[in-house]
């Protein structure tokens, strides 16, 4: 992107927003886990809109047209009746776009943070969070992106309630990434309008257990607690990695603690897919990528290894 002609940039407004893995299996639209892969932005007022981007999907992040960060920024200020100052953004992105890692939540939250700061809106953190959740349409990614750890969220009449736990757990978060992205909108369109009662009950039971597992650091509960019956079965046809990798959760259950194989605690579709999240007892186990590639039958499959993030930084 072209350079801003702003000569004296001064101290930038700084944002660092984590990737998120929503749902964690049964917690559809309710649970999100913040991951230590970041969208980092430094912003200054300038004489025009400029973006310089590095990192993952840098070409998409640097686009000025239909850029979710900028459209959110401009729209929030337009609704507030404030003329949007033009900005120079310096972006470094580590979050894969359209892969089920909460890229749109981080971009929306960034746009709202920028609007609040450069438009002097004076919003509280709760107002910023609610605005981004309303724009996303469901709170799971946005709430975890802001608050970090494993965040449970409920949106009722545009008012958000949240609770966070597990931010200090050192479990490994391993993401198997197929080559092509999948738009969340498309993955949501595959879901039925109603569900059998037994599927809903099974998901309520799993979700309750899953929250307890994160709150108490009970990795032994994840294999059962990450089972889902309300979105994963319907998304398998557009997320072909999922049926190949779900059995990995069972493979570790029978291992003797003496065996030095990476201990897999649970497996789920990451967000709306197509990536798959594999949670391990240890952070970044070196033998796991090869195990995942073998199960997927794809030697070149990308595997990202990361850990739980504490959430957003701004200022
Ligand atoms: N850093 C960014 N800059 C500009 N646009 C972005 C950025 N991050 C995400 N987007 C926009 O959001 C789209 C991806 O959003 P989508 O909801 O489909 O997937 P996701 O958020 O990555 O996955 P999920 O919601 O399942 O976690 C991108 O195609 C792009 O339009
Ligand atoms: N809960 C959302 C997360 C993706 O944005 C879904 O599964 O569609």
TrEMBL record:
Main localization of the protein?
A: cytoplasm
The family database entries (Gene3D superfamilies) matched by this protein are listed as: 3.30.230.10, GHMP kinase, C-terminal domain
Q: Cross-referenced SUPFAM superfamilies, in alphabetical order? A: GHMP Kinase, C-terminal domain, Ribosomal protein S5 domain 2-like
Compartments annotated for it: namely: Cytoplasm
Enzyme Commission no = 2.7.1.39
Q: Where is the GHMP kinase N-terminal domain?
A: 76-149
Q: What GO terms are given for molecular function?
A: ATP binding; homoserine kinase activity
Q: What does this protein do?
A: Catalyzes the ATP-dependent phosphorylation of L-homoserine to L-homoserine phosphate.
Family from the record? Belongs to the GHMP kinase family. Homoserine kinase subfamily.
Q: What is this protein called?
A: Homoserine kinase
Q: Which gene encodes it?
A: thrB
